[in-house]
Amino acid sequence: MATNTNHPQVVFIGIGCPSGCGKTTYGRHLVNRLRSPLHLIELDHFFNRGISIDHPILGRIESQEEPDTLDIQQLLNLLRHIKYEPEKNNSIPFR
């Protein structure tokens, strides 16, 4: 992203793995190490609902690991505000 005198440069780092692999722990480490002015943004905060899926071994189960369980539009809106209009949004998770 190009910067100007009014906006600091924003760099997003995405970490993807299955649940319980340490994404949040690693993300917190990065936030602290890089001295980010932002809080960690966790997908857990955008969880909508579990959905029923047919698991090949377990049969019909309630899953929270499917993309349809997240409110992706809300996440994208937050990321756009952080990147393009940080001064206009009080909901940006600054530390």
Note down, in words, how this protein is organized.
The protein contains 2 helices and 2 strands; from the N terminus they run αββα. It has a two-stranded antiparallel ribbon with strand order 1-2. The model has no long low-confidence stretch (mean pLDDT 79). The relative contact order is 0.18. By secondary structure, it is of the alpha+beta class. Strand 1 and strand 2 form a beta hairpin. The protein has a domain of 64 residues. This is Phosphoribulokinase/uridine kinase domain-containing protein. It comes from Rotaria magnacalcarata. InterPro entries: P-loop_NTPase.
Average of pLDDT: 79
Shape descriptor: elongated
- Biggest sheet architecture: 2 strands, antiparallel
Work out the radius of gyration: 16 Å
Query: What percentage of residues falls in helices of 4 or more residues?
Result: 25-40%
Strand order, sheet with most strands: 1-2
Low-confidence stretches: none
Query: How would you spell out the order of helices and strands?
Result: HEEH
Alpha-beta content class: alpha+beta
Beta-strand content bin: 5-15%
State the end-to-end distance: 22 Å
Helical run tally: 2
Beta-strand segment tally:
2
InterPro entries: P-loop_NTPase
Protein name: Phosphoribulokinase/uridine kinase domain-containing protein
Organism: Rotaria magnacalcarata
